[in-house]
Amino acid sequence: xxxxLYPYTPVYxxxxxxxxxxxxxxxxxxxxxxxxTPYVSKTIVAPADVEGYFSKGTxxxxxxxxxxxxxxxxxxxxxxxxxxxxxxxxxxxxxxFHAAVLDGIQLPPES
Length: 111
Description:
This is IPT/TIG domain-containing protein. The protein is mainly beta. Helix content is about 5%, strand content about 30%. Strands 1-2-3-4 form a 4-stranded antiparallel beta sheet. A hairpin with a 6-residue loop joins β2 and β3 (about 75-85).
């Protein structure tokens, strides 16, 4: 019905299936798959498990982002829900995460 004005294969980051486009690609230490800056002040679904904090699929609120001046890594300030298993009371916590951690990439321990 409509003419395809851009018939070429999409470049990385311009498709809806972002994580499966390049399954064998090796990511450098400071290169992340998602830039979280456009999601500031929005609620998104967590793209990966963040061990000890929340699981994949949890609704999280992106409060803000900034880039670490020494490493150049993107830091994301996230508000996420926590339910007390004893009382069932739900509360909200805020914590800073590396963008790579939100993408499911395990960072090496700091020395």
